[in-house]
Amino acid sequence: SPGPRHPSDDLLERRYRVVADVQEHYYTAPPQIERGWREYLMDVDGRVYLDMVNNVASVGHAHPRVVEAATRQMHLLNTNSRFHYGGITEYGEKIAATLPDELDTVFFVNSGSEAVDLALRLAMAATGRRDIVAMREAYHGWTFASDAVSTSIADNPFALETRPDWVHTVAAANSYRGAHRDADAARYAPEAVADIDRIVAGGALPAGFVCETYFGNAGGVALPAGYLQEVYAAVRRHGGLAIADEVQVGFGRLGRWFWGFQEQGVVPDIVAVAKSIGAGHPLGAVITRREIADRYRTQGYFFSSTGGSPVSAAIGSAVLDVIQQEGLQDNARDVGAHLAARLEDLGTRHPIIGRVHGSGLYLGVEFVRDRETREPATAETAAICDRLLELGVIMQPTGDHQNVLKIKPPLCVTKESVDYFADALARTLETGW
Ligand code: PMP
């Protein structure tokens, strides 16, 4: 068991006193983490945890090539991005090369919130409009504009009431939970198209439509087949742009696809990325077409002091090299498929498992009290996560009902490690929580 916190350890109380206590945090009595290695975290007592939740540490904690690249560049030069240096160009070329040819122009920022914010502003600048259509139950960031399009009640209970009037929404296209379930999920796309037509008829011409290309905040639920083809076509028919939030789901995690939009067979106009691309270092990017990027100036000034700085570019470059050279996308596909099969197998014995969602190393186990009504097992999910911590696994709930296990370990996670997680979950479900 994790054991009691050190009686002398008042660090947590000091944290809440000095660091604004509005940020969500993991666990009421969290272990104090001191270091990380691959998919493992170690606390100050030397206890090791399997980190099954960390999509930020994409290539694994403390990857030597990333550490080396950062250290080397830190010794040489770190400065703002107005200077001329090799890294920003080389990394820009590398990241653009992972995308379809027409997405050829990169902006560098420092986070996912900034990337989504910039993506929205690019759409507004390119179209000369300000209205945005967003999918409900989403999280896109905390900045003014990214927060405005975030309507997940788990993240913001007031999200729907406090939304500014330039934000319009369509239903969350969740095929497990929501108005249209299972085979009926095909109805989400025509309904969203009708909603967009209605929004336009009401006088609001959309600058763009924004959503995650794989429904990450619901625990890795694939959008219904063909959904983005229909909805992107509708928004474009009305002169708006398609904005893809790939902050969680992009960059190889889905295994079979490097980008979430590939699963839907579409190419967005603007792509926002962050989190995994910096493997924990603050780094975000927006990639779009040259003519869209050029229109930004109609909105004002773009300058990010540290977005794509020499150190950020060196880290981003090393992370992408590691993903490609160590075959981490293939690892996500293979180890993820093995884990999904183990979780499905658990589902045959434990009716609390309503559905196993996801692809690659983005999986969600949705817990329900009743498989027919799909009543969310919210309290049970919290208790299961607490028990998993005792068993040495870091795991958190996600989704608007907080009843889905958010499974997104570092992409280097091994088959042995995911077996450890599946065994720990099996033990928890068999012996109680
Ligand atoms: N978009 C999505 C889909 C996210 O999950 C997040 C972060 N949870 C963000 C945007 C915002 O990213 P950041 O925390 O780096 O600002």
TrEMBL record:
This is Aminotransferase. Belongs to the class-III pyridoxal-phosphate-dependent aminotransferase family. It comes from Microbacterium aurantiacum. The chain holds residues 571 to 1003 of 1003 of the full protein.
